[in-house]
Amino acid sequence: MILGATSPATTSLVGLLIAVFAASLVEMVEALTIVVAVGTTRGWRSALRGALAALAVLGVLVGGGGVALVDYTPIDTLRVVAGTILLLLGLSWLRKAILRSAGFIALHDEDAIFRSTVRSLTAEQEARRSAAQGFVVAFKGVFVEGMEVVLIVIGLGASQHRIGWAAAAAGAAALLVAGVGALVVRQLSEVPENLLKTVVGVMLTSFGIFWVGEGAGVRWPGSDATLVVLVAGFAVLTMVLIGITRRTRRSAPASRERDPVPT
Amino acid sequence: MRVVLRWVARAGLAVWDFLVGDTPEVLVVTLAIVGITFALRAHNHAAVVVVPICGVLALTGVVWLGRARITSRRSRSEGH
Predict the structure, then answer these.
(1) Residue B74: which residues within 8 A CB-CB, separation 6 or more?
(2) Of the residues A110, A210, B41, B47, which has the fewest C-beta atoms closer than 10 A?
């Protein structure tokens, strides 16, 4: 039930694993930046406790919510709801990634996040509150970044009845980031985040359209093969839009603005 | 009871902010695509062509709106 009974060697399973893994990688890098900032300023104990508590809550959300959805919701309803959420997230991620690539929004800067988190934590000097505050900041950082992954895991996993595969891909990405991040934590800013976000955005948008259609009763030609066409089409469109928005920005140069909502 | 309602309201606001935030146009185009898909469900040939095209238009539209919003915000701040 958890891993699904169908053959794993299908287009949609490969797409699911890539999309969930890449999305988790991006979000976990952001979460790790915050946890490391908390650890270096408030102590590793509270930082790790906060991070683990958030991961546990996220795990319960995936385990409880996802499995209940799969077991008690009609598959077509599930696909429409999941497809809608994937489409919403996919369009948001792609929009932001395209505007970042074109220079309209500043690229995400892990070093800046690290510095600002450290600054805000060192400003608070009360020793008694420091451990609790470190826990809260680490918890919040991991929870907020992880919520998007939870939606993607449930959305992609539930629509294909493969919550287990999706959760495993997310877990693998989290372990990879935790392992590599512990060794080379200051190099996190070198992760090509916007490129990953673009790839995930293309996949989520394609999956979203595909599953909304399937749920509504549309029979796609070639079934899963349509996904490949959708992914290729949105990848080309994304490149075209990046090119066009870059060109229009060059014709009207202005100061770069910071991204108000780090995602 | 009041506490529970307050928590539900907070959770609702958080979900709204998380999914919609400052880009309501993304929600609007997403719901439009879902609506069009359901409207065309009985016309499969049309749906397999029109629904992906709607996705293309939606992405182009939200990027264009985002670009226009940032540009107008900049020109307003430069005007002050």
Answers:
(1) A254, A255, A257
(2) B41
User: Does the complex come out with an ipTM higher than 0.95?
Assistant: no
Give chain B's length. 80
* Percentage helix, strand, coil for chain A under 3-state DSSP, each rounded to 5: 80, 0, 20
User: Do A51 and A142 touch, CB atoms closer than 8 A?
Assistant: yes
- CA dist A233 → A70, A78, A222 (Å): 30, 25, 16
A197-238: pLDDT as tens digits: 888 899 999 999 999 999 999 999 987 888 889 999 999 999
Interchain contact, B40 vs A80, CB within 8 Å: no
Give B 7-66 residues with CB within 8 A of chain A.
Answer: 18-19, 21-23, 26-27, 29-31, 33-34, 37-38, 40-41, 44, 47-48, 51-52, 55-56, 58-60, 62-63, 66
Give the pair of three-digit tokens for residue A93: 């991620």
Orientation angle between helical segments B44-79 and B24-39, nearest 10 degrees: 170
Tell me if B30 and A205 make a contact (CB, 8 A cut-off).
no
CB contact under 8 A, A241 and B60: yes
A183–chain B nearest CA distance, Å: 32
User: pTM for the complete prediction?
Assistant: 0.75
**Beta-ladder partners of A105:** A257
Q: Quick one: pLDDT at residue B52?
A: 96
Listed residue (A43, A1, A24) closest to A138, CA to CA: A43
